[in-house]
Amino acid sequence: MFTAVWMIYAADRLLDSRDAAAPGLEARHRFHQQHRNRFLAIILLATPALVLLLHYTDARALHLYTLLAALLGAWMLLIHARPTPAHRLPKELAVGVFFPAAVFIPTVARVPQRQLELLPTAMLFAAVCTLNCLCIYAWEHPKPQPQAHWTTRWATQHLTQLSIAILLSSILTTPTLHQPAAACALSSALLLLLHTQRHRLTPLNLRATADLILLTPLLFLP
After folding, report:
1. How many CB atoms lie within 10 A of CB 142?
2. What's the pLDDT tens digit per position in 88-123?
3. H or E element, residue 83
4. What are phi and psi of 141, to 5 degrees?
5. CA-based nearest residue to 106, from 70, 67, 68, 62
6. CA angle 85, 88, 92 (to 5 degrees)
7. What residue spans of 21-114 are helical by DSSP H?
8. With 125 labelled, which of 28, 103, 114, 176 sits at a CA distance of 20 to 30 A?
9. Nearest residue to 156 via CA among 170, 169, 141, 166
């Protein structure tokens, strides 16, 4: 999963940075653009490793991953094939769907009878992942971006309310979902705190901290 997610992330950044003069490019895009050949080489080297790893993946999980990859491929094609960003699709919201789906696929494939039981946890995790992406986008674009999708513009204008809603939802479901909901509550609370302190940190440190906050489940492993 790590190999596949990294390849998708790098490929998406390389596609974003094809046009050096395109509006909205951030430091991470320019970094990928500057080291384009190296990223392409590592992606090519990682491909056979990924194929080998897929050979040892559970058949049911592999079937679900193939379906998810097809949907993700179609989504990326729609995003990057558009000649103009005037009606940009909400990539920030899509991450909140695709990444949690990839995380939950192994368990759903191994224990299919728990699909409904896992659904509330998956939805909470998806909400936190979406909040993470929306926070990063809002911090990197403090002024309204006309090329952003309307859902992204609305969500970034209501980040505090969304953070509180996710936090309360996680707290209310903690007695039922236990550690997963507690981890989501902690992540959403930390993202809300980070959002209130955003003017004290650089965009790079904000982004790194926002991603670090998603590692709260590690605290519950013991």
Report:
1. 11
2. 567 777 888 898 999 999 999 999 998 888 899 999
3. none
4. -130, 75
5. 62
6. 130
7. 27-34, 36-55, 59-81, 91-110
8. 28
9. 141
Residue with tokens 């981890």: 183
Sign of CA dihedral 13, 16, 18, 22: negative
Tokens 């392409």, located at residue: 40
Give the model confidence (pLDDT) of 61-71 as tens digits: 999 999 999 99
Which of 109, 87, 85 is CA-nearest to residue 16?
Answer: 85
pTM, entire model: 0.86
pLDDT of residue 84: 52
Give me the pLDDT at residue 93, please.
Answer: 76
Query: 126 and 98 in contact (C-beta within 8 Å)?
Result: no
Encoded amino acid at 54, one letter: L
pLDDT at 183 over 90: yes
Work out the angle between the directed axes of helices 203-213 and 115-140 (0-180°, nearest 10): 170
The mean of the pLDDT values for the chain is 88
Given a contact cutoff of 8 angstroms between Cβ atoms, the answer to whether 92 and 137 are in contact is yes
Residues 6+ apart with CB under 8 A from 15: 76, 80
Size (the chain), residues: 222
Distance CA 185, CA 124 (A): 9
C-alpha–C-alpha distance, residues 64 and 95, integer Å: 17
177 pLDDT tier (thresholds 50, 70, 90)? confident
| pLDDT computed for residue 60 by the predictor | 93
